[in-house]
Amino acid sequence: DAGVTQSPTHLIKTRGQQVTLRCSPKSGHDTVSWYQQALGQGPQFIFQYYEEEERQRGNFPDRFSGHQFPNYSSELNVNALLLGDSALYLCASSPGGDIQYFGAGTRLSVL
Amino acid sequence: GIQVEQSPPDLILQEGANSTLRCNFSDSVNNLQWFHQNPWGQLINLFYIPSGTKQNGRLSATTVATERYSLLYISSSQTTDSGVYFCAAIQGAQKLVFGQGTRLTINP
């Protein structure tokens, strides 16, 4: 049984560009959450998707958007990248929002 | 919203020692999880423990919900236990609120 998988593992972009990160949840999980972890900090909640709808959103600007597909996989899109968007982006899946299981993350560097 | 605080921020021990990590939260919670973040960044689930005590090998955790704290115990530490330990809480809605973490270093 595959766990939560994220792609790509690493990404380098320049300021102003757009990026898409992808996440496949654990089998049987219908809820996907995204978190941003800056260096030396704890992860911060970006948003959560359930039944293809954004169920809850953290304190992030509209440049951060997402999508959930019918197979429960999800994408995180960030537009107009800033240097401060450099971070580890973590995806977590859960059966209905209960215990959350995390993927290995995508490390984004913005130059 | 809920606030989560962890202590100590850093802990350095010799192999074989025991350690206690603390997590305080500002309000009642529906869910509390402990994670170990490995050097590659992945968060490994250790415990789901909104209340009570659980044990898994050398690790155990206790959450006293009425007093709003949780403790993670590591006995007979090994160098592979090194890393950052996070606790995270959910209050009401489904987002996890993380503490700042405890960086544990186990020296041989």
Describe what you observe in this structure.
The complex is a heterodimer of chains A (111) and B (108). Chain A is mainly β and 111 residues long. Chain A contains no helices and 11 strands. Chain A has strands spanning 5-7, 10-13, 19-24, 31-37, 44-50, 53-57, 64-68, 74-78, 87-94, 101-102, 106-110. In chain A, β5 (44-50) and β6 form a beta hairpin. The termini of chain A are far apart. The relative contact order of chain A is 0.33. Chain B is mostly beta strands and 108 residues long. Chain B has strands at residues 4-7, 10-14, 19-25, 31-37, 43-48, 52-56, 59-64, 69-74, 83-90, 97-98, 102-107. Chain B is globular. Chain A binds chain B through residues 31, 33, 35, 37, 41-45, 48, 55-56, 58, 88, 90, 92, 94, 97-105, 107, and chain B through 4, 31, 33, 35, 40-43, 45, 48, 86, 88, 93-101.
Count the helices of chain A. How many?
Answer: 0
The first-to-last residue Cα distance of chain B is 41 Å
Let me know the average pLDDT of chain A. Answer: 94
- Multimeric state of these chains? heterodimer
Which ranges of chain B are low-confidence, i.e. pLDDT below 50, for 5 or more consecutive residues? none
Shape of chain A: globular
What fraction of the residues of chain A are assigned to beta strands by DSSP?
over 45%
How many strands appear in the DSSP assignment of chain A?
Answer: 11
- Rg of chain A, nearest Å: 13 Å
